[in-house]
Design brief:
Number of strands: 3
Largest sheet: 3 strands, antiparallel
Order of helices and strands: EHEEHH
Helix content: 25-40%
C-alpha cells in the first residue's frame, strides 16, 4: 500500500488512472473543464498536457466514472479524440470502471465471507 495521501472520497483500492486524448479546443474551455472536473467527489488528480492534448485523470472508480467526466467535457464543448486508439481505450476504461463499481458493492461468498456462528459445546 502506498503512503501517498489521497483526496476525500478516494480509496486506493479503487483508484484508476486514465489518459484521454482530446481534440484541439479553446484554452478557456479546457481550463473550465479542468476546474469543474477537479471539484468532483472521488477525483484524486487531474492534469492536461498541452503538447500532446492528453487529459490525465486519477479517480476512485467506485465513486465516479468516465461517463460523468465526459458529460463535463461535452458541457464545455470539448471532445475526446476520434482516433481508433482513443476510442478503444475509452471503451476499455468504461468496462473497467463498471467492474470496479460493481465489485465495490459486492458481498463475498463462500470461503471469502465470515462463517455463520456455531453453537458452542459446553462440557
Amino acid at each position: 500500500m502506498s503512503k501517498k495521501e489521497h483526496r476525500l472520497g478516494v480509496s486506493e483500492i479503487n483508484l484508476v488512472v486514465r489518459h484521454l486524448k482530446l481534440e484541439p479546443a479553446d484554452q478557456n474551455n479546457l481550463q473550465a473543464v479542468v476546474a469543474e472536473v477537479d471539484q468532483l467527489y472521488g477525483l484524486d488528480a487531474i492534469s492536461f498536457d498541452e503538447k500532446s492534448h492528453v487529459l490525465n485523470l486519477a479517480y476512485d472508480a467506485s465513486r465516479i466514472c468516465l461517463n460523468g467526466i465526459e458529460d463535463v467535457l461535452k458541457k464545455h464543448g470539448v471532445e475526446v479524440s476520434h482516433d481508433w486508439w482513443t476510442h478503444f481505450k475509452e471503451g476499455y476504461y468504461k468496462f473497467i470502471d463498471e467492474n470496479v463499481k460493481d465489485n465495490a458493492n459486492h458481498e463475498p461468498w463462500s470461503c471469502h465471507s465470515t462463517p455463520p456462528p456455531t453453537p458452542s459445546n459446553k462440557k
